[in-house]
Design goal:
- The complex is a heterodimer of chains A (458) and B (178).
- Chain A has 458 residues and is an all-alpha fold.
- Chain A has a single domain, classed as Formate dehydrogenase/DMSO reductase fold (Up-down Bundle), CATH 1.20.1630.10.
- Chain A is 68% helix and 0% strand.
- Chain A is globular, with a radius of gyration of 24 Å.
- Chain B contains 5 helices and 4 strands.
- A 4-stranded antiparallel beta sheet of chain B has the order 2-3-1-4, with helices on one face.
- The longest helix of chain B is centred in the middle third of the chain and has 28 residues.
- The mean pLDDT of chain B is 87.
- The chains are: A mainly alpha (458), B alpha+beta (178).
- Chains A and B meet through helix 1, helix 5, helix 7 and helix 15 of A and helix 1, strand 2, helix 2, helix 3 and helix 4 of B.
Chain lengths: 458, 178
């Protein structure tokens, strides 16, 4: 009956974690005492949410005229930020679902935080189409419902595809996140006291960890992961078709779907690094988020970053090779025109700086990795800005060319969206166990009594 | 799960191999009312208890198929309901509906999976939890055995005791405490 001993549990993933009980101890203590850093950041983000609410409220009252949006640039920083946050969301699903299917042993300690990031990033992204609509109270018009004249949305439009893709994505990622948390919420319930105990008892839905529960849970989780994998690839493809289906020069390219998916994962992994470095530092999770984990994430960044850089070069090449004058002019204008700074930020942050990740010394230095990830985050926002704004401002008709400048209201909303995201993420750290307690135990070596000789014969 | 009113006991173990030995020993002697507890998904426990394939997969498949059908049928219906020719394209533009069908396949596949999961797990479990030890979410494995009568239970107790559990709770349902 040597059934268990031979299994290769990745003992080397967390060499400093001694026992199962220790995992509960270390992770659940975060919920009890968040510390002064948490309060500081939380206050800061609450302030930012205030800026967000004020800016949006101002725009709701005075209309879209308070933005810099005008002909020909009808899509500005709102759509830029929408694409940015949808992209950020992608790596969470990648880490939780795709790496789950691939049985990557380093995903366990970061995937819960990455999943939370996904849910909150989609929540943030989902606000931007509403903000961009102007009259946000008509947002339900996006959904196909039998209205009084029985008019239906145009299902040939990529914008309607987007509604379906993003809604499905939010539903799936929220379910995946909550379902995966249930065993850990039960662990929190079993330690909590007072009001918190009542809260965790309610959200854990009576989980006990019986064989029946684990059996079906494991299978359902596998199916959800298998469904999430094609979904995550489809969502950013659909977002990219918002652009690629139009004939705007600089958008109308078949490379857009894989290019956007790679960019999404690239930016998302960078964001996971950005979030997990302070998480590890502030809450003392060094045992769980080891250098090995950061090394794996950095490699993921490197691979996707190379794909993205390759896509940039292909775009430029195709513009030249197409022989189309407007196409060529748009790309020339990107690098040397009015928005040269945006394009160069994109090229330097996403193309050149990630080259540093080839070096093991950079991948193994948390500080260096954190810095690189910040540059990637900035670069990926400017990538979307470059794609959207430079193309629209420089379309076919030279007399229609114009320059777009985001207004103060738009800036307030953009900055506020980061605070809104941070607000939810901080709440998550305080309320839900930020490291997956039960799944982490899967990669720890199970405690074995070993078999004394005299009992072995039975 | 235990039938209420049946006698039973709850043993908790620190070691996985001891837990597995106890389950296998009980199964060999014909005990079927066994509930195993674990702090994380442990496939060896499921194997020892003789689990086959989970019926959740049927729900997932059904949901996916319903979603795919709806994802094609609904845009087709709405396009025919109010025909609007745009750019000379056919009224039924199937390639465009592939995206909708794809997303609906996933959406309903997910929702059906969750429904199937909850039905099969008998979840959520809203009644107060009995036959349980808070340590089962931390670092203990557990076995609950129920039996038809006290005699049979004593047999089970002997098998489990041979595997040296850390703790045994008699009458965990609290039936005989009034």
């Amino acid at each position: 009956m040597a059934t268990v001993a031979e299994t290769d549990r990745g003992a080397q993933t967390h060499p400093d974690v001694q026992s199962y009980g220790e995992v509960n101890e270390d992770v659940l203590q975060i919920l009890g005492r968040p510390g002064k850093w948490w309060w500081f950041l939380f206050a800061l983000s609450a302030l930012g949410v205030g800026v967000f609410a004020f800016s949006w409220g101002y725009q709701l009252v005075y209309g879209l005229g308070v933005t810099g949006l005008n002909s020909p640039v009808g899509w500005g920083v709102y759509i830029t930020t929408f694409v940015f946050w949808v992209g950020i969301a992608h790596s969470g699903t990648l880490i939780s679902a795709i790496l789950f299917l691939f049985r990557a042993r380093w995903r366990q300690s970061i995937y819960r935080a990455a999943e939370a990031m996904t849910v909150f990033a989609v929540m943030t992204a989902g606000l931007f189409p509403l903000i961009h609509l102007g009259r946000a109270w008509h947002a339900y018009w996006l959904f196909p419902y039998p209205n009084e004249r029985l008019l239906w949305p145009n299902f040939r439009s990529p914008l309607v595809w987007d509604v379906f893709a993003v809604t499905t994505y939010f539903t799936l990622s929220a379910i995946f996140f909550y379902l995966g948390s249930i065993p850990d919420l039960a662990a929190a319930r079993d330690r909590a006291k007072g009001l918190w105990k009542r809260f965790y008892t309610f959200v854990a839905l009576g989980w006990r960890g019986t064989d029946r529960e684990w059996h079906h849970f494991g299978k359902a989780y596998l199916f959800l992961a298998a469904l999430a994998t094609p979904l995550v690839l489809s969502v950013h493809s659909v977002v990219s078709w918002d652009f690629a289906m139009a004939i705007v020069p600089g958008w109308h390219a078949t490379i857009f779907a894989p290019y956007f998916v790679a960019g999404a994962i690239f930016s998302g992994v960078a964001m996971v690094i950005t979030l997990s470095v302070p998480l590890r530092k502030i809450f003392g999770l060094e045992k769980y988020l080891t250098v090995r984990h950061f090394d794996a994430m950095a490699k993921l960044c490197l691979v996707t970053g190379l794909i993205v850089f390759w896509a940039y070069l292909v775009e430029f090449f195709m513009a030249w090779y197409s022989g189309e004058d407007p196409e060529r002019r748009v790309f020339w204008n990107r690098v040397w025109g009015h928005y040269w700074w945006s394009t160069w930020i994109m090229l330097i942050c996403n193309g050149f700086i990630p080259i540093l990740l080839w070096f093991k010394r950079v991948r193994h230095s948390i500080a260096a990795l954190f810095t690189v990830s910040l540059f990637i985050n900035i670069g990926m926002w400017f990538e979307r800005y470059t794609i959207i704004v430079t193309s629209l401002s420089h379309e076919f008709m030279p007399f229609a060319w114009n320059v777009y400048r985001p207004s103060l209201t738009e800036m307030g909303i953009i900055l506020g969206s980061f605070a809104w995201f941070a607000f939810w993420f901080l709440l998550f750290i305080r309320v839900l166990p930020p490291v997956a307690i039960s799944e982490l135990k899967e990669v720890l070596p199970p405690p074995m009594r070993g078999k004394p000789k005299e009992e072995g014969g039975r | 799960m235990s039938g209420s009113g049946r006698p039973g006991f709850l043993a908790s173990f620190q070691h996985l191999d001891a837990t597995l030995d106890a389950i296998k020993g009980l199964r060999k002697e014909g005990f079927r009312d066994i509930t195993a507890y674990a702090p994380f998904p442990e496939h060896h426990i499921e194997e020892a208890l003789g689990y086959g394939k989970s019926p959740v997969r049927v729900f997932t498949l059904t949901g996916g198929l319903v979603g795919a059908a709806a994802g094609f049928a609904f845009p087709a219906f709405t396009s025919l309901d109010w025909p609007l020719v745009t750019g000379g394209k056919p009224i039924l533009s199937m390639p465009a509906y592939v995206v909708i069908a794809f997303e609906m396949t996933i959406l309903l596949g997910v929702l059906f999976t969750v429904i199937g999961l909850f039905i099969n797990m008998k979840f959520p479990h809203l009644k107060p939890i009995v036959i349980y030890d808070p340590e089962f979410t931390a670092d203990r494995f557990g076995i609950y055995v129920g039996a038809a009568d006290e005699e049979r239970l004593a047999e089970a107790r002997k098998i489990v005791d041979a595997c040296r559990p850390d703790r045994v709770q008699e009458d965990p349902e609290g039936l005989h405490h009034g």
